[in-house]
Design brief:
Elements (H helix, E strand, L loop, with lengths): L22 E6 H13 L17 H17 L3 E5 L8 H5 L12 H17 L3 E2 L6 H15 L3 E5 L13 E7 L2 E5 L1 H8 L6 H8 L14 H11 L2 H6 L12 H6 L1 H11 L6 H4 L12 H11 L7
Parallel strand pairs: 1-2, 1-4, 2-3, 4-5
Antiparallel strand pairs: 5-6
Length: 312
């Protein structure tokens, strides 16, 4: 089973009014922690990173907690969950394609330690966090967005810089993406305006392009100039290959590349598509991730870790 707990950030336990419009905030746990870590570790050796008196690294963790509390203050969610990845060699995608994420470097030890500290801290606080064997954080988030869409009327906000998650956008679900001038709340309408396709077709674009960071091959020789227009015109990878012998003349230069890359296109699409049926999440009751508040406990735990952030 995944790790399920209850968010308590407060002195007395307080439940938000049932009349409040329900809102779900989903956090891509490692995406946020790693960004916080590398932002605060830039140009520094390990011995220059902030530690507490117990010898624990806290540079990235402090920034992560600060951001998490800020998100809760600004967006006032009624429900919240953090999704964590399993080890990259233990995923369903790795079983399908052995080179999946095969080019990534090992994670720095201070980052791994802060992940472990975060999990322990959030368990103590009762913060809902989920790690599901063989599934990635994207899949946990994808299943949550689908379940929320099926069962609830309120808004769902995904916090992550991972553009793969754009395939989850819908009228209810938006994505908060960090940008130079602050965070952008990217909606399904923004996506349609920018790309001229539906979010569900994003995996078809990715299937052609591939993904260097995840080592997903895509179709060799088909880049950004062709991938999106092909999906706009033919709808999907299936639609492209159904018409491959009669492609528009403007794609003539890609004909042979598409033929040679057919197997990789379908494999890449499979790897890029986010699962929305992770068993532990499908069976979850949303009351289990309803926000409760215990500021006293939060302050005590942050004090113990010597993390100084604004709580109230």
């Amino acid at each position: 089973m995944g790790k399920i707990s209850f968010f308590i950030i407060g002195g007395m336990v307080e439940r938000m009014s049932e009349e409040t419009q329900e809102k779900l905030l989903l956090i891509d746990g490692f995406n946020l922690l790693s960004r916080c870590y590398f932002a605060t570790a830039y140009g520094k050796e390990w011995d220059q990173l902030t530690r507490n008196s117990q010898g624990l690294f806290i540079n990235g963790l402090r920034a992560k907690i600060q951001k998490l509390l800020q998100l809760v203050r600004i967006h006032e969610p009624t429900h919240l969950a953090i999704a964590w990845d399993v080890k990259r060699n233990e995923t369903l995608r790795k079983e399908k394609f052995q080179d999946y994420k095969g080019t990534r470097n090992e994670l720095p030890e201070p980052l791994i330690q802060q992940y472990e500290t975060a999990v322990t801290l959030f368990n103590t606080l009762g913060l809902p966090q989920f790690t599901i064997p063989r599934y990635e954080a994207d899949d946990i988030i994808g299943t949550f967005t689908q379940k929320w869409r099926d069962e609830k009327q309120g808004e769902c906000i995904v916090y992550s810089n991972d553009r793969d998650l754009l395939q989850l956008l819908c009228e209810q679900t938006s994505q908060l993406i960090a940008a130079k001038k602050g965070e952008i709340k990217y909606t399904v309408h923004d996506f349609r305006d920018d790309y001229g396709i539906e979010p569900s077709q994003w995996v078809d674009v990715k299937a052609l392009l591939g993904d260097k960071s995840d080592n997903i091959p895509g179709v060799a020789g088909v880049g950004e100039k062709a991938a999106l227009p092909l999906v706009q015109q033919y709808g999907s990878v299936e639609g492209i290959y159904e018409s491959v012998d009669e492609l528009d003349v403007k794609y003539k230069r890609y004909f042979k590349k598409l033929q040679l890359g057919r197997e990789m296109a379908f494999l890449s699409r499979d790897l890029c598509e986010i699962y929305r049926d992770v068993p532990d999440i499908v069976d979850l009751n949303f009351d289990d991730i309803r926000i409760k508040v215990n500021r006293s406990l939060l302050k005590d735990e942050l004090s113990r870790l010597e993390i100084n952030v604004r709580v109230g």
